[in-house]
Amino acid sequence: MKKKIFKALQLFAFDSNAYCDFTSTAAKAIAGKDILLCIWSLDGSQLLAISGQQGLTINRSADTIEITSKDTQGGWKSYLAGMKEWSIDNDGLFVPNDESHKILSQAFNSGDPVCIKVVDGKRKIGMFGGLAVVTDYPIEAPHDDAVTYSITLSGMGEFGDLSLDPVSPDTMPDGTAAIEPLTVVSVAGSSAGASSVYVNPAKEGSDKYFYKTGAAPLAYPSYGEVISQTEWDGSSEISGLTAGNQIMIIETDSDGKALKAGVATITVGAD
Question: Top-level CATH class of 31-64+78-161?
Fold first, then answer.
């Protein structure tokens, strides 16, 4: 029943996407300015965005192993992918007193690896992560321009793709972790001021649901924030609502700490 409701709402959303097609490739593109290279403090307690960063290139490649033989069909060479490697090139304005550059300088001098993470700062999700060594760290100081740095981080082992294997919590450089999204739908309930609310995906294990309502936009909680709003069992109609306001469903762990959240515009039953 819930799946049918979601499909029906998606079918007629935004006038069937006649002029506001959020499914288009362009609408899903991300801006390079939102992608940040971050480095973990040496004790792993803090994720720091590298200060002054401007350019960022993520390099991934694999060795090429030729397996061509005399009986290869059509005279075309054949290859296998061999060992993989990765590196990151980053440059920007040099901020010597910033903690991130102190960690990079220390790692360059000692030869010890650093733990890095690439994040989408706008969507607050991790993209890549892994261990790397600092193999190049020049600083340029022209007489007519700002002091700049460039750095090459050469990967040690796997470069984790966090879009394929997400982590939780997904820590951001501002010290918060990204709260995971929920899809929330509100449909008219069986009585005036009541709404049937559907959430996808459903909560897990001993997790709990809480909700809050109000005029748009409702503020999202931080990951791990203790929630004090009204608890909800996940199936009962919610009453006393105002049509056109928003309702936010917050999924928490058993201790009431926020894990996921989503918002819908409230639809209520008629008088």
Answer: few secondary structures
State phi, psi for 105 to the nearest 5 degrees: -65, -45
Report the CATH fold assignment for 179-265.
Answer: Immunoglobulin-like (2.60.40)
Helix (H, G, I), strand (E, B) or coil at 236: coil
* Domain assignments of the chain as residue spans, ordered by start: 31-64+78-161, 179-265
Confidence band, pLDDT 50/70/90 cuts, at residue 168: confident
Tokens of 109: 């001098």
The C-alpha atoms of residue 232 and residue 184 are separated, in whole angstroms, by 14
Residue 98: Cβ-neighbour burial (10 angstroms; 0-12, 13-18, 19+): middle
Taking Cα atoms as reference points, which of 133, 222, 208, 207 lies closest to residue 175?
222
Contact 269, 194 (CB under 8 A): yes
Structure tokens at 231: 């608890």
In this prediction, residue 41 carries a pLDDT of 92
The whole-angstrom separation of Cα 189 and Cα 106 is 61
Question: What global pTM score does this model have?
Answer: 0.64
The answer to whether the peptide bond before residue 96 is cis (omega within 30 degrees of 0) is: no
Give the pLDDT mean for 199-221.
92
Give 13-36 pLDDT, tens digit per residue.
Answer: 566 666 666 666 666 688 899 999
Distance CA 184, CA 198 (A): 6
pLDDT class of 55 with cuts at 50, 70, 90: very high
Torsions phi, psi of 103, nearest 5?
-65, -40
Q: Which residues contact 87 (CB under 8 A, 6 or more apart)?
A: 59, 132, 135, 152, 153, 154, 155
